[in-house]
Structure formats: structure tokens, C-alpha cells
Amino acid sequence: MMLQDFTTPLLESVIQRLATVGIELQVTKKRVKNINFRLKPYVLMVSVPMTISAVQTAQAIDKRVAWSLDNHPQVLA
Q: What pTM value is reported for the model?
């Protein structure tokens, strides 16, 4: 499952906020127990459990946007 499967208004605003600094959002559903975030240069990769809803996914990502924006310059260095 890719990002288009998770489209919600909240997630659209998150994508726009990340795009202002050039960060792409990649969301994949996997057989994991927790939501996992990986910040790479210009990419925020998120893996979510198979059973999680699009709304829960969007809320979790929204909570970590500030973290990713704050730490992205360190990842680039």
C-alpha cells in the first residue's frame, strides 16, 4: 500500500508542510506492531501496521511533522 491509500485532508496538509522544505512522504503498510518513522535526506519514511486506519495514520504523522522539520538539517549534515 502506498501513500494514495491513506489520503485524508489532514495528511494532505502534512504533505504540503513537508514539501515546503523539500521532504517527500513515503507511507507503507507492513507487518509491524508499531508506527515507525525514518528520516532520510529529503524523505520521511513511515511504516504502519496493516490494521491501522488512514485517519490514525494521518494523526500519527501529523504529530511527528515538527520533529522531522527540526531534525532534517541534521540529517543533511
A: 0.87
Q: Where in the chain are the domains?
A: 3-76
Q: How far apart are CA 45 and CA 26, in angstroms?
A: 5
> How many residues are given for the chain?
77
Q: What is the pLDDT of residues 7-66, one digit of tens each?
A: 788 989 999 999 999 999 999 999 999 999 999 999 999 999 999 998 999 999 999 999
What fold, for 3-76? Double Stranded RNA Binding Domain (3.30.160)
Burial annotation 2-31 (CB, 10 A radius, 16+ → b, else e): eeeebebeebeebbebbeeeebebebebee
DSSP 70: H
